[in-house]
Design goal:
With 92 residues, the chain is of the alpha+beta class. It has one domain. Helices cover 26% and strands 34% of the residues. The protein has a 4-stranded antiparallel sheet. The radius of gyration is 18 Å and the shape is extended.
């Protein structure tokens, strides 16, 4: 019998800035699961200044991230979300 996947997994790209001239990525911000699956990392990679490559990592538990989103985010009604999803699915 298999057990459900416990812990954090996966990556989510939140922001990507691309230089319009060189088409190189200047900045990228992503959420990524920690290797042990117990926390979420916010990784901010910044190469906007020539010759400087900076990466800053922030760590938070899934429970803390959920609490922060619930405290600061805007709650969307389930029926409204379904209507928006159906509208997007109908295009294309």
């Amino acid at each position: 019998m298999s057990t459900p996947n416990a812990g954090v997994h996966g990556t989510l790209q939140l922001l990507t800035e691309i230089d319009p001239v060189s088409e190189m990525i200047r900045r990228a911000v992503r959420l990524e699961a920690a290797p042990d699956g117990r926390s979420v990392l916010l990784i901010d990679t910044d190469s906007r200044k020539p010759g400087i490559h900076r990466e800053i990592r922030y760590e938070i538990t899934p429970a803390e991230l959920i609490a922060a989103i619930r405290a600061r985010g805007t709650e969307l009604r389930a029926d409204l979300c379904e209507e928006q999803h159906a509208g997007v699915a109908g295009h294309g």
